[in-house]
Amino acid sequence: MAKIKLTKNELKRQKDMLSRFERYLPTLVLKKQQLQLVIRRVEAEIRKKMLQKEEILRNLMDWVHVFGEEVGIDKLVKIRNVETEVGNIAGVDIPVFKGIEFEDITYDLFIMPLWVDRGLEELKRIIALDAEIDILNQQKERLGEELRITTQRVNLFEKVKIPETRENIRIINIYLGDQQTAEVIRGKIAKKKLTRQV
Questions:
Q1: Which of 49, 75, 146, 174 could form a disulfide with 92 if both were Cys (CB 3.0 to 4.6 A apart)?
Q2: How many CB atoms lie within 10 A of CB 133?
Q3: What is the pLDDT of residues 59-101, one digit of tens each?
Q4: DSSP letter assigned to residue 7
């Protein structure tokens, strides 16, 4: 604890600081709650996208196994661009998935099996889901970092700054009270001495 001056000015300064801390703390707590809520939503969205991806993969693999053919379908899909924009949640800039563009790759329709068109569409859906999951993970990471910092600030105010300031105010009040009492006692003693001399 830093050494404090035991004066009325310091008492006022400490009371002002306490007032600021107590006014700022609810805003931080609200931000912390908002971040926790958004992180839970993002995690739920990630789980949902993962389940969608698994379902598509399961259906696609069953379908490919039915025809029993191995085709290099993954070479027919290339990403041109993943579109994102910047969103803001509780003062945190996060990437938001907007869409994905694929390059147009032509292939010989006579050589490839009939199911390749459908397989390409499903593969594109899987890749788009992967890109979206990646963006959601980036959101979660950034929000998690901001939550960590906000939690540290909340703890600083709740566990350090506010109790320390209250203790400083208590110490200054005790000192000033003792000084006032001492002045009253000195005044009475001086008055007694004056009345005895008269």
A1: 146
A2: 19
A3: 777 666 544 455 566 677 788 888 999 999 888 899 999 999 9
A4: S
